Amino acid sequence: MTTQPLPLLHARELPTTGEELRAAASTVNALIAELPAAPSAPDLIRLRQVLAPDHYEPAGPQEAASLEEAFSEHDAFFGVARAHGTADLFLRALLIAEIDTALDLARTATSLSPAECSALVSGGSALLGRRRARDGSGDLVRPPEVRTALPADEHTAQQRWRSGHRLVFTHLQAITVTCGCAVHARTAAGQSAYLEDTVLFCTTAALAMRHAADFSPELYVRSIRPSMTPPHVGAGFSGLQTRDHHYLVQSLDSLGTRLLPDVVAGTTYRKFEEALGRLYAAHVHVCRRFGGDTNASLRMEASKEDSGTTGAERARQYAGLRLRKLGGRRPAA
After folding, report:
1. What does pTM read for this prediction?
2. 5, 7, 64, 101: which has the fewest C-beta neighbours closer than 10 Å?
3. DSSP-based three-state secondary structure for 139
């Protein structure tokens, strides 16, 4: 797996309309037009090489100093470089993160089912307009045969923790993008179609969280958690430093008021709410898997908070607040 940072388009520069997204997809499809679907490791590596930008312009600070410092620390830990550029860079990063995940699955097994593994790496294909077959044969990136022995050493667990989070970040960006496209669509049918894409990426982001944490709790205690404490990072290292989630929350905050009333009252919006709930439930699952039912989070420890609240319970509280706010946008039945 590459040790180079993944260039992620800065969230302020993500495409926000269907026209921008289609233009980006056209650019990427032209770039990879001569390449076959990538079911084998050599194919995946070749596809990754073609998609990786030859160069990119680093995105400068765009937030208040304290917020930018927190975001940048989080990016650096997980191997992300924020880039300024055109919208196709968003799709390139999404596909590269999915390729890295497929390569990870080729080396090290997973507890996810074959269907879940296929969904985990197929989001980019959907945004490129490639028709997805039931057996996944239409996807650009396809996972290898799934095995069942989880990572057993610290190095492999660290790789999965970091690359899995990069996949989460790209899929959070995809949620933000498809929400923006839904808002700017002019018809109820167009808005609902983009919301269906949003449901897809809420589902895959939840799977990506589970994948990132798919190793033993003992390895987390021995290797992962210590790497997220001083002197490696500042005290109180936290998922609240996730830049892409910060922007996602902002896009969700106004979503219901910007969609057509019939869409907000319809079944697709309810499917979206349910999928978003599963996404936040996946975060709680990771907290619980690694001791969050009995222990405080790193952020809570650093603040010396003594409220009797565990890390998992705090994650549930945050999720509840966001979901209630979103649900409040829907008209009463």
Report:
1. 0.91
2. 64
3. coil
Q: Which amino acid is at 296?
A: A
* pLDDT class of 26 with cuts at 50, 70, 90: very high
**What contacts 46, CB < 8 A, 6 or more positions away?**
35, 38
The model's confidence at residue 147, banded by pLDDT at 50, 70 and 90, is: low
Question: 158-189: per-residue pLDDT in tens?
Answer: 999 999 999 999 999 999 999 999 999 999 99
Take residue 282 and report the two structure tokens written for it. Answer: 């996946």
Average pLDDT over residues 222-229: 96
- Tokens standing for residue 98: 């999915």
- Distance (Å, whole) CA 276 – CA 325: 12
Q: Which residues, at least 6 apart from 104, have a Cβ–Cβ distance to it below 8 Å?
A: 1, 159, 160, 163, 164
Long-range contacts, stretch 229-233, CB < 8 angstroms, 24+ apart: 229/298, 232/77, 233/73, 233/77
Q: Which two tokens stand for residue 271?
A: 């499917």
pLDDT for 151: 67
Sign of CA pseudo-dihedral 131, 201, 247, 49: negative
- How many Å separate Cα 54 from the centre of its chain? 24
- 284: pLDDT strictly greater than 80: yes
DSSP β-bridge partners for residue 9: 83
Neighbour order of strands in the sheet with 80-84? 6-9, 80-84, 57-58
Task: Please give the Cα distance from 190 to 18 (Å, whole number).
Answer: 9
| Per-position b or e across 148-185, b if 16+ CB within 10 A of its CB | eebbeeeebbbbbbbbbbbbbbbbbbbbbbbbbbbbbb
